[in-house]
Amino acid sequence: MHATFGKYLDVDLTAGTIQEFDIPEDWQTRFIGGKGIATRLLLEELPESPDALSPENILVFATGPFQGTMIVGGGRHAVLSVSPKTGRVADSYAGGYFGHELGRSGYDGILIRGASDTPVILTLIDGAASLQPADDLWGTGTSTTEETLKSQFPGARVSSIGIAGEKKVVQACIINDRSRSAGRLGFGAVMGSKKLKAVAVRGHLEKTLADPDRFAKERADYAKTFINEGYQRFGQYGTGGGVTVLSEMGILPTKNFQEGMFDHAEDISGVRMHDTILVNRETCAGCPIRCKRAVKTSFGGSEVLPEFGGPEYETLAALGSLCLNSNLDSVALANQLCNEHGLDTISAGVLIAFLMEASEKGLIEDDIAWGDPQAVVRLVNELARREGLVAEAADGLPLFADKINADFSMTIKGVELPMHEPRGKQGMGLSYATTPRGANHMEGMHDTMLASESPSPEIGVDHAYDRFSLADKVQPAKAFEDLRSFDNSLVLCCFTSRTQGEDYSYPMIRSLLEAATGQTVDAAEMLRIGERAYATMRILSGRAGHTMDEDGLPARFAEPMSAGASAGHPVDPSVMQQAIADYYEARGFDRFGPTDETLRKLGMDDCIGKLQRG
C-alpha cells in the first residue's frame, strides 16, 4: 500500500538486537495503520498476559499513512503497550513533531521488546538504528534529555521519560517536544522498566503516494477549511477556552467529581490565560490552528517557562477545578513540573483531588486543604519522586484507596477519569463504562456534539439527543467510537476531523486517504476499519480477563450534583447496566468480547480463536 513503508523497526533490548518486522499487506488494507496495525501486531506478538513492567511486555510507537505528509491534523503518533494501571493493552496519542519524523523514517513504527540491564537510548537517524548507553541521562528531566539528544542529532525529535518513569510511577507518561505527552496509561513506567530513557528519530524519506498531484491539491484545499472564525477563536484561546462554558453547562468536573460547576472557572480559563500569562502559541507538524499554549509566569518563587508549553483544558480542570484550585499560576507550574518529570496531568490531578477529599474525611493524617495551590505543586513533585504520602499511590490509585477504605477513587479499570462529567454527558458515560482501555474521552461520544437536528447523518446519527439521558444512545455511541477509532488508525487529530453538521469532514479525509494510499474507502468501510481496531483491542483486553461484569461507572455518578445546569441528573445504575447489555449486543460481543460471527463479518477470520471464553 502506498503512503506506508510496510515494516516496523523491531528492537529487542534484552538481546541488544535490531531487525525489521514486515507488516502483511492484508493487515494494511484492513487496519490501515496507527492503532489498527499496532493492536493487530500486539495480538500476534504479545504473550497472553504479561506483567506490564516485565521484559515480556512490548511497547509500540506507531504512525499511519498521513504522518510525514504535512497534512493538517497529521502531526501525531500512537503509543501502545500493556498498561501498569489496567494490566491490559491500551493506547495513547501525542501531537507535536515526533510522529512527523517517524513518518519519514523508513518505518511505520517501532516495536520494542525485552529490557536492558542498563539505561539506553534508541536512535533512528536517517534510516540507521542503534542502541546507545544513557547512564549520563538517567536521573535527568525530559528537557535535559531532549536538549542533549538534539545537540547530538540535529533535526531529530525526541520522546523521553523523566524521573517518574524511571521510578516506575504508574502515573508516568512519555514526553516529546518538551510539552506533548503520551499519557494516561503509565507508559512512562513501561519505558522505565525497560531502562529505555529516550527514542530519538530523524526522518529522511518522502513517502511514495498513489497520486501525489491529487494529494497535494486536496491537502491544500483541506487546509483552507480551517481558515474561519471558529478555528481562529479556537487557536486564540486553545482547549482551555471551554472551561467557563462547561462550568455553565454543569459539566466541569469540580471537587473530585462531586460537582459540575466551579465558582472560579473564569480564573483558570483559556481566556484568562490568553489575557495574562500566554506569550506564544505552538502547533503540531502541518497544522495552521496553533491551539497549543506557551506561558510565562511564576509561582512560589519558581519560574514557569514557555518552552514547557502551557496547560490545556484537561490540565486546567484536573489541577484546577477538580481540586478547587483557582490559582492559574500554580496550575501552570504544576503543568511544567509534570512535563519535566514525565507525569500525566490528568492522573496527577485526580490523585490530588482524591487526597484532598481523603484529608477532609479524616482517612489520612496529612492536612491537605481543598484549593491549596502550594499543595498541588508539592504533591506533583512528591509523586514524581515517590516521596511522602503519595509514594504508595504511585503504584495505582485504586490500590491506595482500598488501603485507606475510601470509596471515591474516580477511576475506571484503574485509569483516572478525564475531565468530562457523565451525569451531563450520559452517552459518554456509556463509552466510559465499556471501554477496554480504561476511562477514555478521546474515543467516546460527547453528547454535546448531538445537540443539532442532524449532527452526523453519514454514520447514522440523524437527529438531536438529550445529553441527560441514555435513551437511544447505544447506536450513536458505537458509531462515534468506530469513527474515532478510524481517526486513530490514521492517527489524525480529533480537533481537525470534524464529526457533525455542515463542517463534517470525513468525505474529504477519505478522498485524501485514497490519493495517498490508492485504497478507496466508503463511509461503511471507514466505520468497519475503526470497528476492527476496536474489536482487536477488546480481544486483547478479553485475553487479560476483561468481561462485561466489570463494566460500569464509579458509584459517585449515581448521586445527583447539588448545583448548576446538570444538577438533578444522576446516572441510574440499572439504566446504565441495561445500556451496557444493549451495547454488547449491538457490537456483536458476548460477555467476553467479539464473537466468532462478529469477527467473520468484519473480515477478521484470522483473529478467531485468539480469545478464550470461560
Number of domains: 3
Q: Gap between N and C termini, in Å? A: 39 Å
CATH topology of the largest domain, by name, is Aldehyde Ferredoxin Oxidoreductase,  A, domain 1
Strand order of the largest sheet: 2-1-6-3-4-5
Q: What is the CATH H-level superfamily of the largest domain?
A: Aldehyde ferredoxin oxidoreductase, N-terminal domain
Radius of gyration: 22 Å
* Overall shape: globular
Helix fraction, binned, reads: 25-40%
Mean pLDDT, as a whole number? 97
Number of strands: 20
Class based on secondary structure composition and strand pairing: alpha+beta
Please, could you describe this protein's structure?
This protein has 614 residues and is an alpha+beta fold. It folds into three domains: 7-202, Aldehyde ferredoxin oxidoreductase, N-terminal domain (Aldehyde Ferredoxin Oxidoreductase,  A, domain 1, 4-Layer Sandwich), CATH 3.60.9.10; 233-416, Aldehyde Ferredoxin Oxidoreductase Protein, subunit A, domain 2 (Orthogonal Bundle); 426-552 and 572-607, Aldehyde Ferredoxin Oxidoreductase Protein, subunit A, domain 3 (Orthogonal Bundle), CATH 1.10.599. It is 36% helix and 14% strand. It has 22 helices and 20 strands. The strands form six sheets. Strands 2-1-6-3-4-5 form a six-stranded mixed β-sheet, with helices on both faces. Strand 17 and strand 18 form a beta hairpin. Helix 7 packs antiparallel against helix 19 and helix 12 (328-341) runs parallel beside helix 14. The longest helix has 21 residues, at 523-543. The model has no long low-confidence stretch (mean pLDDT 97).
